[in-house]
């Protein structure tokens, strides 16, 4: 019989909650290879790669418009600090990766904020980090959004205004686009 004092303390594990959205997710079954609403544990030294190549990527997006390796997430600990974090690296030569409002070209990387919206093509991923203590493992948990995450975060769905000054009458949401000066953004 062991006492409560002798039991090992259970370490909490950092978890990335990832909510996914694509406008044609139902008809194309793009996310069919992902395990939804179930935590999946990875070793801290593993690089979590997202893309369409099932031999290289841990998380597969079944779409020919996605690069073989679209982006990668790397778990790390800050130098001279106990804080744990992630960095995200764009692995696609074909498309930019947008982390909140920061554009990453091929092989550019940046620290992943605690909560951010990642976009490429028609894909939207809302990533929220739940802090943990373990330096050996981290977890991922996927959820599917039914509506655009841009609308949920109240980010403007901007449509460019042609240089001719003649704007299209209505965009796809039934709203007339408004021209704004680049300095007002």
TrEMBL record:
<keyword id="KW-0963">Cytoplasm</keyword>
<dbReference type="InterPro" id="IPR033621">
    <property type="entry name" value="TIFA"/>
</dbReference>
<dbReference type="GO" id="GO:0045087">
    <property type="term" value="P:innate immune response"/>
</dbReference>
<dbReference type="GO" id="GO:0051260">
    <property type="term" value="P:protein homooligomerization"/>
</dbReference>
<dbReference type="GO" id="GO:0005737">
    <property type="term" value="C:cytoplasm"/>
</dbReference>
<protein>
    <recommendedName>
        <fullName>TRAF-interacting protein with FHA domain-containing protein A</fullName>
    </recommendedName>
</protein>
<keyword id="KW-0391">Immunity</keyword>
<feature type="region of interest" description="Disordered">
    <location>
        <begin position="161"/>
        <end position="185"/>
    </location>
</feature>
<dbReference type="GO" id="GO:0043123">
    <property type="term" value="P:positive regulation of canonical NF-kappaB signal transduction"/>
</dbReference>
<feature type="domain" description="FHA">
    <location>
        <begin position="49"/>
        <end position="121"/>
    </location>
</feature>
<dbReference type="InterPro" id="IPR000253">
    <property type="entry name" value="FHA_dom"/>
</dbReference>
<dbReference type="Pfam" id="PF00498">
    <property type="entry name" value="FHA"/>
</dbReference>
<comment type="similarity">
    <text>Belongs to the TIFA family.</text>
</comment>
<dbReference type="GO" id="GO:0002753">
    <property type="term" value="P:cytoplasmic pattern recognition receptor signaling pathway"/>
</dbReference>
<keyword id="KW-0399">Innate immunity</keyword>
<dbReference type="GO" id="GO:0033209">
    <property type="term" value="P:tumor necrosis factor-mediated signaling pathway"/>
</dbReference>
<dbReference type="InterPro" id="IPR008984">
    <property type="entry name" value="SMAD_FHA_dom_sf"/>
</dbReference>
């Amino acid at each position: 019989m062991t006492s409560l004092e002798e039991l090992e303390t259970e370490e909490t594990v950092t978890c990335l909650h990832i909510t996914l959205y694509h406008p044609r997710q139902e008809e194309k079954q793009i996310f069919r290879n992902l395990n939804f609403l179930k935590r999946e544990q990875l070793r801290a030294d593993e690089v979590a790669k997202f893309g369409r190549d099932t031999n290289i990527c841990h998380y597969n997006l079944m779409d020919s418009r996605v690069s073989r390796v679209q982006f990668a997430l790397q778990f790390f600990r800050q130098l001279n600090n106990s804080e744990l974090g992630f960095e995200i690296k764009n692995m696609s030569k074909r498309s930019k990766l947008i982390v909140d409002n920061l554009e990453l070209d091929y092989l550019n990387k940046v620290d992943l904020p605690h909560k951010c919206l990642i976009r490429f093509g028609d894909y939207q991923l809302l990533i929220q980090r739940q802090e943990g203590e373990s330096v050996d493992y981290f977890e991922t948990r996927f959820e599917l959004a039914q509506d655009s995450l841009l609308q949920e975060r109240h980010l403007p769905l901007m449509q460019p205004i042609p240089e001719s000054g003649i704007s299209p009458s209505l965009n796809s949401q039934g709203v007339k686009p408004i021209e704004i000066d680049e300095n007002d953004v």
